[in-house]
Amino acid sequence: MSYEAIGIIYTTILQAFLSTFSSDIRDCVSKVIEVQLEVYDQVLNGPMKPTPSKSHYTFNLRDISKIF
20 to 30 Å CA-CA from 54: which of 22, 25, 34, 47? Predict the structure, then answer.
């Protein structure tokens, strides 16, 4: 699944959840999703990537959904 598709899914969810909030908060949705996907990408592909000598928790899309 591409980051663009993930962004569309989570943007839709967050916009629906924040529909009753003020416009100042609703206007921040795209930036929140952008930052969230950047962190997710850095965790998956950055220096925390698991290796045989250094195993740790592997993140997945469920971890993103826990933010919301």
Answer: 34
